[in-house]
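Can't paste images in this forum, so I'm doing it all in text. The chain is below; anyone willing to post the predicted structure tokens underneath?
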Amino acid sequence: MKAVAAIIQSWNWRRVNIIYEETDSSSSGNILNHLYAPFQDAGVRIDALSPLPFFATSAALTDELEKLRRAQCRVFVVHTGVALAERIFARAHQMGMMEKDYVWIATDSITSLVHSMSPSAISSMQGVVGVRRHFRDSGEKFREFRTKFVENIQRRYPGPEKNHGPGIFALQAYDAARSIGLTINGTKKIEEIDFDGLSGKIEYKNRKLSPVVQFQIINIIGRSYQELGFWSDGSGFSTVLDNKVSYNSSMEILGHVVWPGGPWSTPRGWVLPTVSNPLRIGVPNVSLTSKFVKVEYNPVTKNYSFSGFSIEVFNKTVQNLNYSLPYEFIPYNGSYTDLVKQVRLKEFDAAVGDIAIISGRYDYVEFSHAHTQGGLVMVVPIEKYSNRAWLFMKPFTKAMWLLTGLINIYNGFVIWSIEKEHSTDLKGPFFNQIGHLLWLAFATLLSLNGQRLHSNLSKMATVVWLFVSLIITQSYTASLTSMLTVQRIEPKIANIEMLKNANAFVGCSKVSFVKTYLTDALGFNSGRIKNFTTPEAYAEALRSGEIAAAFLEIPVAKLFVAKYCKSFVIAGPTYKVGGYGFAFPKGSLLVADVDKSLLDAFEKGVVKDLEKSLIESEICVDIPADNETTNASLSPRSFFVLFIFTGSTSTAALAIYYIRRRRKVDDVAHEHKGIWMFLVLMVLKKWRYRRNRMSRKVSDLESPADSHS
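Text version of the structure:
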């Protein structure tokens, strides 16, 4: 049976129906243990066990097969004798159960004698996969035995019918006789017997024959069968039995398998719901909040509509499956535990909604992966008090403080540069000038100081900066005032020990598992626990002091504190419980596919987007939305235009000042140049005049001398 379990596991079939022949020893449980253990080890669930007596009537066979056909599982293992197996396959063929999507596997008790079956029996078994004990049909000993066996059969049963060689049962009988002979003759004790028989290795442990470890896999096709390969215990599948060959856990290495109904497709192993017979899914109609599950009835159409986070997650998950899954939602008004019990009773094929995954419910169903965060938390009223310590730096961000200081210093530098010509106080030693520069930088924040400024340029820069600084200081004052009056949030109850010591009342949902958890796990007195059915009832009870705390599952708690953001807060530790999941019958073949699709939705961000929309849809009702204020620190982005305005004004004033100063210097230099030219011309003119006079005197002296001569 291990080989059969390995085949089923290889094709990822997770459930199986077993049809076995009922014998006297079945009541002792030996056969059941023989059937259950291998499948449990392979992770395969036995969906149905169908015992049939050897003399089962045709009506009994039909009833049993019809019962199996109505179930979802389509993988069948037949573990009977040949005679009963032929009747089972013939009836299954007549009922259309040897068609596409069905899987039939026959055990060694059938396939070891498949060569002796009639053609009509073989025709009704097309596509059956079988396992049979392997024996080597070569070697001198086997050939000798085969010759004697065929001669003996022909001598006892003469006639035209072709006699086949010995089967595994003849070889086992021969090896058993040999073992008995060894013990009777006193040659060996039963525990000492160890030889290679015709049927395989013969060895006894604890006075029992060692189990078979090698099987041959066959596929019934046409008028006979095809040998696909082998399966070895502890190694896996292989095409030949050889220590050098590689083994694999997948049967696919054996080549193509012809299944019932068609040669090319591998059966799914279970039947999918159809449009005419969709999956019937129960939905709780008692959810604490409509954000997760909302059931509405339309009296006009007389139909129900279903919405909410859990419903949307399930819809997205099903859409992501690689096959179509028709389903319909049906409202259920009972508790969550009763709902999962209805799944077990097959009133529903599944249950979808804000169903918490807890250990007690695993007794009835299997759950998919959680689609919400798991945990239980305590929600309590907040304790408010004002906090006035060291908040004077909070209204501005660090970047805002730095930029404001730099602009101050820059404006002070501009004013100092322009005014130093007009004031002796701004001249002198270096450190004295630095002090005056810083004083000018920050004094403008408090007053204009217009009477002390001489240049219109410095007055212009100062007026603009004073306008900007006025806006900045007023914004700072408003922000600081708001922060000083803001209430600091602290929980009134820090932990459950405070609740227990005060013997306070606590609240929980009327239809959830929370009350049981509070009493059994956290040790609360059941008489101090009150039940509620709506978030509004929780809020009213917490405000009035009827209860000191409410215990909610994390998804609900997040929505609750988002709705009552100024009144309640989550406090204390998170108590680990499962999140919300989808419930399916035990062994459901849908669970693995739904889990894979759900994880894919998480990885693609689909569930994250739904969660974001869920939280954003809950608006805080404690204060009007129009009056909501923010305590965020102011950043340079809020005053970007003003900083550009004052910076450009100061820069323009400084640039104009330096341009004017340059022109003034140029004018003075030009004036000095004209004076020097005038003086040079005057000197040259004077020099010419004196030169001319000297020339006349010389000529006058020379004239009388000429006349005397």
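Residues 640-708 form the longest helix (69 residues). DSSP finds 20 helices and 24 strands in the chain.
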